[in-house]
Write a structure and sequence with these properties.
Layout: H1 2-16, H2 25-34, H3 41-48, H4 52-62, H5 76-83, H6 85-100, H7 106-129, H8 134-143, H9 146-154, H10 156-169, H11 173-176, H12 185-195, H13 200-208, H14 220-239, H15 256-261, H16 265-282
Helix pairs in contact: 2-6, 3-5, 4-6, 6-8, 7-8, 7-14, 7-16, 8-13, 8-14, 9-10, 9-12, 12-13, 13-14
């Protein structure tokens, strides 16, 4: 009976999210090429340059303080050589995700600000705990709320009802959405990542960043990645990044994520300050 219920849920999710965006062809090709140990920066640059908008975004981001370049990067092969293939993969995904968050209005812009902010926060947290790849953590943070833009595009009136309830009742989004949509943004987000053939560690981190219901609770890397994505989300909420207003009263120390990562008050305060400063320095490069 349990398997049948899960199968029905998956069928409903597929129907609900039938118009989910596909990963752009250029991004798919780049990620395939990166898996080939013989690929060169020039070959990757040739594929990326077939998409002028993606090329422009990658060049802009590669010159940001976010990646700490000491000199201006002027060519795409140069950017790829300087940043490395794993970072290129991240930037291609950033450019692809930005297309999903086309900023036609305030809500889309706020959702994108939150996503980039969570990505940056996750990268900073990962560097602190040193047990998770910071670039992969950046993607987990960037993607953890991608399901929200799908819910928004599916029914904007219902989505705004959730936002109003969060604001008026001072409750978290994941608590308010349950009464409005048949699926949480986390589950929809995980489905998108599966459709994009992204690593399972990212799929699980996005799906479980509020519930921590792990397939394997002993998988330290997975638990840490999910906790980082969750804590990054809370950093943004506390500071009001992509939110209507800051939730200054939000306790980071009491969160499941902070407990899993063994971060105390002092470390959390330091990381939050570092994140706030870095966000202000880099936000314009990612718009």
């Amino acid at each position: 009976m349990k398997e049948t219920a899960m199968s029905n849920d998956n069928e409903k999710l597929i129907m609900f999210a039938g118009d989910l965006p596909a990963m752009p062809m250029v991004a798919t090709k780049v990620m395939q090429l990166i898996e080939d140990e013989r690929v060169t920066a020039e070959e990757l640059a040739k594929v990326v340059s077939s998409d002028p908008a993606m090329t422009a975004r990658i060049m802009k981001i590669s010159n940001s303080a976010f990646y700490g370049c000491q000199r201006q990067v002027q060519t795409l092969p140069g950017a790829i050589m300087l940043l490395g293939f794993n970072t290129l993969k991240s930037l291609v995904i950033v450019a692809s995700v930005k297309e999903v968050y086309k900023t036609f209005g305030l809500t889309e812009n706020m959702l994108w600000e939150h996503s980039f902010g969570a990505g940056l926060a996750a990268r900073i947290i990962a560097r602190e705990i040193r047990s998770v790849n910071p670039e992969e953590a950046f993607l987990a943070g960037l993607l953890e709320d991608i399901g929200k833009i799908i819910l928004y595009n599916h029914d904007r009136k219902k989505f705004q009802l959730i936002i109003e309830r969060c604001y008026n009742e001072c409750i978290m989004f994941e608590d308010a959405e349950k009464a409005v949509f048949p699926f949480t943004h986390s589950k929809v987000g995980g489905y998108i990542l599966k459709k994009w053939n992204l690593p399972e560690v990212l799929v699980t981190a996005v799906t479980q960043h509020h519930t921590f219901d792990f397939p394997d609770p002993e998988d330290y890397y997975q638990c840490s990645m999910t906790a980082i994505a969750s804590l990054a989300d809370l950093f943004c909420i506390k500071l009001g990044i992509g939110e209507r207003m800051p939730r200054t009263e939000l306790s980071l120390t009491d969160s499941m994520a902070a407990r899993l990562l063994k971060l105390d008050d002092d470390k959390l305060a330091r990381l939050l300050d570092e994140f706030e400063e870095n966000y202000e320095q880099n936000k314009n490069y990612f718009n």
